[in-house]
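Structure tokens please, single chain.
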Amino acid sequence: MNNMKYLNNYIVFAVLILSQLSLFTSCKDENTVSELIRLDRTAIQIKEGSEDVLKIESGSAGYQFAFSTEGYATAEYRDNVVHIRGLKFGKVVLTITDSEGHRATVYVVVVSSVLNSDAQRFVWDGTIELNKANDWGLTVHENSVAVTNAMEGKQFVLSWDGILSVGVKENATLQILSSKEGVETQKIELAGMEILQIQDNLCSIVFSTATQTGEIVFQK
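Here you go.
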């Protein structure tokens, strides 16, 4: 009887030890899980000679940066954000690697600080001349510009937060609308938009996605 009691106590003790070891192991595994790198955006537009910041929302410190092609931009981590400076016109991919080996990529679009022509135009999937006798018209508001062709039933609407003033604009979008049956409205979230200049009532704007750059020059 005593032997049986001793055996039962031993089994209970062994079960308790195993459960504690299992709990310790699971806690250890949970504590050592590292977060993947998460960025606040997947594409960023920067003007030549200017700088913008990219926020790393999660990841392990000790970041390293590599561009798909050198010479277009630089990246430096300071003050808990990535400072990216545009060097010359072009598009590159920035790969960020943390100390755990996790990686994330962001498209960097460097736009020209000055557009190469003052000709009034809208450029996106081709060029629309805005100062010629054609079916395209322009409507300008404080926070949007619409380029419309009533004959074709097509309209481009570029909009942003804030007013029509020189500088980088937040939350910029490009909508492409059509009156044709079955054609849905496209709403494109832009990587960036900047009003480069407003001089002699001539306004120059450049905007982009990760893979495409657009521009509009018009008379206010």
